[in-house]
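User: Please predict the structure of the protein below. I'd like the answer in structure-token form so I can feed it into my own downstream comparison script.

Assistant: Understood. Taking the following sequence of 113 residues as input:
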Amino acid sequence: MDQGAGALRKTLAKRKAAPDAPMFVNSRDLRIRHKWVRDNWHAACNQAGIEGMRFHDIRHISLTAIAHTGASLKEIMAREGHRSVKAAMRYQSATLTRDSEIAGLASRSLGAL
């Protein structure tokens, strides 16, 4: 996690002062185009042997991980800037690992009765 924070600090240090300046720019300080991201993402996935993963899937994975921390739906919505429950729920998914954890917690809870 610290690796990402360090890289983000470096990027922000180079960023123009304007609040609406692009976060990531090319060598000419122009906004990076969607096509560039898509092409480079596909190339990186191919090199890593990953098939069928879209760049946007990172957001889905991240929100699922955040949900598994026990964060409330309202907290998740605030963190990701969602205005509707429907939008926030679109990015969350159940996993077998989490299902096992929930079953174990429920069993312990019932055993304490």
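That's the full token string. The mean pLDDT is 83.
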